[in-house]
């Protein structure tokens, strides 16, 4: 009998055992729906759920160690990024876990599909009635009050004792994602100028004091040259043939009409293409037919890119959630995926959020809230500033301390110094031992975009993130041209070279009825280490 036959025989033998899978253990439970959601009615028994089952990776600690080894400038392995196969060896689940979970599913007449290249994610479609049975759950229809959207969720779920240790999380269950994604907002109520007027405007560095365009931001003005360097994501002195590529995901659309692309798409493209001129840009358009259980495309993007043999050198994302909206187990699983990208040589950047100390988005709160994914220690979170001489922290720039992750070694000294300087201010409102964010900042107010034939000013950390990502892409271009590896996971390099950034020492991010955090000398939880100085960053990169 072949090995495959033996494996299948073992699965169905367990499935036919009868008494197995009868004793359940609660995996996660909530006392009620999060703020902003209301229970409507029991979920229809026949409606379909696409369950995404996260299996424990066999060596997360090994992956994190390898990531830091190739990302820390003092390491002899700095820049020796891992291959897809090497990363997947860390991420892969054990054979025992796969067998146990498939046996449990087989007992319900189900066979799951593998939905990640490492095999640590499975997916299976089931009706609500079966999901209630197999998870000892009670799926209800919940309405997100602000948007009117409805979701099937359960306030608790359980797993059989034979399976519980082999499952990190199942989604959708207890995670209530806000459908109001982090997006830039108009900083003026109406378009401020026609395109022709913007083209003829004086685009000097001094203009950055009031309005932001790609021209004064771009330094150097020489276009990139290396076609192998890419960034996953209106400048008048660019070639008219300049273009970018689009990847559609979950029903995403490639809208090309003057007004249908939207503020977010226009912003990301105009500032990545406009600043990182010459760097190949791939814009991933995620629609609303999420296959990841209404997880806003987070998981689908991770699995899509992880399947690629060649990952982009920079991945810039301008939306996020509040940390409390995300199951801790699910947040950890996604953070591990970002660590995997970093180990392969990708610089992962996320907007820190626009809620100040209220998290990813503004909310009513009595304690400071954290944002996700910004609080994940294996990516670079970007906050916002405005003005010049001096640059000042934007009041909306989300920053603070994670309640899920502790402060990583690479930032422990910087965070400790800030907490010491702050003294007793804000005591009791945040997790003093948490991972601090953002890591860096960039301009994020009155950022000019062309949309629908007019220029508009927009605000948000959604603006800052593609700007900083473009700086990283330009550095990568010169590194690759010199025969060196791209920067990859940025944070150990950033915290080892804080003087290459412009320290921001004015402004704060108030919220939750309190003062928030103040920008201070050194790292702070409003602007991070500061804004990019391209010349100094080049020198720190050895260029």
UniProtKB/TrEMBL annotation:
Needed co-factor(s): Ca(2+)
Predominant location: secreted
UniProt KW keywords: Calcium, Hydrolase, Metal-binding, Protease, Serine protease, Signal, Zymogen
Residues annotated as catalytic: 264, 268, 462
Cofactor binding note of this UniProt entry: Binds 1 Ca(2+) ion per subunit.
Signal peptide positions on this chain: 1-17
Biological-process GO terms, alphabetical: proteolysis
PROSITE patterns reported for this sequence: SEDOLISIN (PS51695)
One Pfam entry name: Pro-kuma_activ
UniProt entry tagged with the keyword Signal: yes
Catalytic activity of the protein: Release of an N-terminal tripeptide from a polypeptide
Organism: Mycena rosella (Pink bonnet)
Residue ranges constituting the Peptidase S53 domain according to the UniProt record: 186-543
EC number: 3.4.14.10
Entries under InterPro entries matching the protein: Peptidase_S8/S53_dom, Peptidase_S8/S53_dom_sf, S53_propep, Sedolisin_dom, Tripeptidyl-peptidase_I
Purpose: Secreted tripeptidyl-peptidase which degrades proteins at acidic pHs and is involved in virulence.
Superkingdom of the organism of origin: Eukaryota
Coiled coil, from the record: none
Taxonomic placement: Eukaryota, Fungi, Dikarya, Basidiomycota, Agaricomycotina
Binding site for Ca(2+): 503-504, 522, 524
One of the record's GO molecular function terms: serine-type endopeptidase activity
Protein name listed in UniProt: tripeptidyl-peptidase II
GO cellular component: extracellular region
Family matches, as CDD domains: Peptidases_S53 (cd04056), Pro-peptidase_S53 (cd11377)
Subcellular location: Secreted, Extracellular space
